[in-house]
Amino acid sequence: MEAQAIHIHSELIDRCRQGDREAFYQLYRLYRRSMYNVGYRIVNNPEEAEDVLQEAFISAFRNLNHYRAILPLGPG
């Protein structure tokens, strides 16, 4: 992941921590498709995948205070 993307996500997460609803929606838009696809592959049912997606976002948003960005290691 690029450093710029990490910076954008960290900024969004900080805004979410401050209760910014638009930031929550932006994070949702960034990850909804990939998270839905993972859920669908697991449950193999569109309605259940939607439920999994919703529960995953609820859990993620509730636990944002525990999030710490992990920066990729540079060439070494």
Q: How would you describe the overall organization of this protein?
A:
The chain is an all-alpha fold and 76 residues long. The chain has one domain: Orthogonal Bundle (Rna Polymerase Sigma Factor, Chain: A). The protein is built from three helices and no strands. The chain has helices at residues 3-17, 21-43, 46-62. The mean pLDDT is 85.
Name of the level-1 CATH class: Mainly Alpha
Helix content: over 70%
Shape estimate: elongated
Number of helices: 3
Q: What structural class do you assign from the helix and strand content?
A: mainly alpha
Number of domains: 1
Strand tally is 0
| CATH topology assignment | Rna Polymerase Sigma Factor, Chain: A
SSE series: HHH
Rg over CA atoms, rounded to whole Å, is 14 Å
Quote the average pLDDT. 85
Q: Low-confidence runs (pLDDT<50, min 5 residues)?
A: none
How far apart are the termini? 16 Å
* Major sheet description: none
| CATH architecture classification | Orthogonal Bundle
What is the fourth-level CATH superfamily?
Answer: RNA polymerase sigma factor, region 2, helix turn helix motif
The percentage of residues in β strands lies in: under 5%
In short:
Helix content is 72%, strand content 0%.
Notable traits:
single chain, 76 residues, mainly alpha, Rna Polymerase Sigma Factor, Chain: A, 3 helices, 0% strand
Topology:
Blueprint: H1 3-17, H2 21-43, H3 46-62
Helix pairs in contact: 1-2, 2-3
